[in-house]
Design brief:
single chain, 281 residues, alpha/beta, three-stranded mixed sheet, 6 helices, 9 strands, elongated
Length: 281
């Protein structure tokens, strides 16, 4: 247990959180003392005690009671030295202090770098941005900070790159006026490799997105999210293809093409078979 006595309540909570203690397990009890307001005057367990991080922690904090805001007649102690009204008013002191503490830090709620996680969706709504709940918190914060810049470049190569870079963590390449599939055309495609039935393709409205990451390094869920981002940010009339970094050469599919392929270690070339003279037939 670290020693937090003599420092502010905010710093004490930060120290305990960094030490691994659950913030929800840290209780605060106010007590009048001749010390600056919100200074920790005591703690339980004591400093240096070996405790589990899930153990409850109580901090005694100096604070001026609301009793001093009442007329003098209500500030008198009881005959036995106690003061029921002062102890009763500590309940409202805790409520008022929590509200005041939030108001003192309200400016952090408008900064995506400091806002509490539960404020991110509300903050994103200020810039007409809908956050995916599956995104990591850090990417949500970065996307909110870049939202206005993305809107300025929406529908352009730069805007799509910024959005994809935030989500993937790497900068993709965008190749305009390209499309890897030619459609099914006799003499120009290889069956099973690049033969595909497509509508008429206008290359001036096509582009390729190359993500410099292996396909196997990205989950299927994130791949679908990448597609969603591209469809949301691209011009509506365009077509695109998403590709990833190529696998090592040993893992690549080698198509059989007459003149290049090999069967059983013997090269086969049109009009000639290695090892057998052409006129032996």
């Amino acid at each position: 247990m670290p020693e937090v006595s003599g420092i502010s309540l905010t710093n004490a909570r930060l120290m305990l959180r960094n030490a691994g203690f659950d913030p929800e397990r840290i209780a605060v009890r106010y007590q009048e003392a001749y010390r600056p307001a919100d200074e920790v005057t005591g703690q339980s367990p004591g400093p240096g005690t070996l405790v589990a991080v899930d153990e409850p922690v109580e901090l005694v904090v100096a604070r001026r009671s609301l009793l001093h805001s009442l007329p003098q007649v209500f500030q008198k102690a009881d005959r036995d030295g106690g003061h029921f009204l002062r102890e009763f008013l500590w309940i409202f002191d805790h409520i008022a202090a929590d509200i005041q503490r939030k108001l003192d830090g309200i400016h952090t709620c408008f900064d995506p770098r400091e806002a509490p996680p539960e404020f991110l969706d509300w903050l994103a709504s200020w810039v007409a941005l809908t956050l995916d709940q599956g995104w990591p918190e850090e990417r949500k914060r970065k996307l909110i900070r870049k939202a206005i810049e993305i809107y300025e470049w929406r529908g352009t190569v730069r805007g799509l790159k910024i959005f994809l870079s935030i989500f993937t963590g790497v900068e993709p390449k965008l190749l305009e006026n390209r499309f890897p599939y030619k459609g099914f055309r006799v003499g120009q495609v290889r069956i099973g490799l690049d033969s595909i039935v497509l509508p008429q393709v206008n290359l001036s409205h096509c582009f390729v997105v190359e993500v410099p990451s292996r396909y196997t390094d990205i989950t299927n869920e994130n791949i679908l999210k990448i597609h969603d981002i591209i469809r949301m940010e691209k011009p509506v009339h365009t077509m695109y293809v998403l590709t990833f970094a190529a696998a090592p050469a040993s893992d690549q599919l080698q198509p059989f093409v007459i003149g290049l392929g090999r069967v059983g270690g013997i090269g086969v070339i049109a009009g000639e078979r290695h090892g057998i003279p052409q006129d032996s037939e």
